[in-house]
Amino acid sequence: MNQQAGKYIIFFGAAIIAIGLIIYLFPNAFKWFGHLPGDIRIEKQNFKVYFPIVTMILLSLLLTLILNLFKRL
Length: 73
Known about the structure:
Blueprint: H1 3-25, E1 40-43, E2 48-51, H2 53-72
C-alpha cells in the first residue's frame, strides 16, 4: 500500500465522521431524505415495501459531482 491510498482512507474516514456529526447534531435537517415524490411505498396489513428510487438517483448524482470535483483537483 502506498501513501496515496493512505491519504484516501484518511479523507474518507474524516468525511464519514463529518457526515455523522451533522446527522447527530441536526437530526431534523434530513427528514426529507427518503420521502421525495417518486419514491415508491407500498403498505398493506402485514406487508411493507419501500423503494426510494428518486432519492437514490439524487444521491447518485450528488456523489458523482463531488467525486468528479475531487478527481479534477
